[in-house]
Design goal:
363 residues; eight-stranded antiparallel beta barrel; 7 helices; elongated
Length: 363
């Protein structure tokens, strides 16, 4: 039941792109007409040839593109769309020599002046860092300066990584003062698309596939052959659902505009040891490309606080649903027991669930 790229975080905040916290653009109102005179996405880029790279041995960057405009990286996600029009407005991607994929950074770009309409242009990042300073030359080419060698590294990473590994991951000493040519926006879009290619088999986000006022049922029954080959798996059968009770709960107090935040789901599990079915309620919220669902005591009483017992839902390929249980948060164990106090030790960490008729999730 192996699966990759689950994101487990300690707070509701999430992601490489911080939304709504910075001065960026709203809708199509871009603020730098010299970069985008007509208010549409503006692309600049350069691909260095072998002769240039040979003459600049301390330059690691072989390809570089800068997009001023709308986010070219983020995929449709599970978070409510309230902040969709407030985000970074400058995006830089580079590919170093020998790399198989580009790296990227996002920032918000503005004039460094009181009126915000004149003076140098700086693209800032979180933690008061600079992504780059910008200016156009007399031929309309974009000049990028002040590009830090640790652009893609966390603050303090030099001490954490050690000098040798830091130097390997950082940009080169000649990776600055880039002169980029104007290009069609589609060229930048294609370059950024290499960073995290969309899997068309995944389809729309769960919040679009699963409606706030409609029930659903996903599950899996493991056969003898599977259980024989997974002796450390406790789960014999599992269901994830929203039925009449969960629908009524959201209808009475949920906010459809922020769906799926506040959505209750039920998870029923049957263990192979005693064959008893136990159902636990979880309250979910959208978080990046997954639903983060915390155990709830709405349907039963607990001797402990179970709100930190969390599972994660993510859309799978071809209409399936993935459920992650990294920290013993399913009722295959007593959620107040010592056994539920750490990471999941059994082979019950990831489930690939198929859509089922609602009758399969009936009590």
């Amino acid at each position: 039941m192996a699966f990759r790229k689950w994101k487990v975080v300690a707070s509701a905040g999430f992601g490489a792109v911080l939304l709504g916290a910075f001065e960026g653009f709203a809708g199509d109102a871009l603020k730098l007409p010299e970069l985008s005179p007509n208010g549409v996405d503006a692309c600049f880029g350069r691909v260095y040839d072998a002769a240039h790279l040979k003459a600049h041995p301390k330059q690691k960057v072989a390809r570089i593109f800068f997009l001023y405009g709308h986010d070219p990286v983020s995929h449709p996600n599970e978070e409510p769309m309230a902040n969709a029009d407030t985000s970074y407005n400058g995006f830089l991607t580079t590919m170093v020599r020998g790399a198989k994929a580009p790296q990227w950074a996002g920032g918000w770009c503005n004039h460094e002046s009181e009126d915000g309409k004149s003076g140098p242009i700086r693209c800032g990042m979180d933690c008061d860092r600079t992504m780059a300073s910008l200016k156009l030359d007399d031929k309309g080419r974009l000049i990028l300066t002040d590009v830090s060698s640790d652009l893609y590294l966390d603050a303090g990473s030099e001490d954490e990584l050690g000098e040798a590994e830091y130097d390997r991951q950082a940009l080169g000493s000649e990776d600055d003062n880039f002169r980029l040519d104007p290009m069609p926006a589609a060229t930048c879009q294609a370059e950024f698309a290499k960073i995290d290619p969309i899997d068309p088999a995944l389809g729309a986000p769960l919040r679009e596939q699963l409606k706030s006022d409609q029930p659903f049922c996903y599950g899996r029954d493991y056969d003898a052959a599977h259980l024989s080959s997974h002796p450390d798996q406790v789960t014999q059968s599992i269901r994830v659902f929203r039925g009449p009770v969960e629908l009524a709960s959201f209808a009475s107090g949920g906010d459809v505009a922020n769906w799926p935040d506040g959505a209750d789901i039920g998870v029923s599990v049957t263990t192979r040891e005693n064959g008893a079915k136990v159902t636990q309620t979880y309250s979910c919220q959208g978080e990046a490309d997954q639903w983060r669902c915390a155990a709830s005591s709405k349907m039963s009483n607990f001797a402990c606080d179970i709100s930190q017992k969390e599972i994660y839902l993510k859309r799978g390929a071809n209409g399936t649903m993935m459920l992650a249980n990294p920290n013993s948060s399913l009722a295959i164990v007593d959620l107040c027991s010592k056994e539920a106090g750490g990471k999941t030790e059994s082979d019950d960490k990831i489930y690939r669930l198929e859509p089922m008729p609602q009758s399969a999730c009936a009590p």
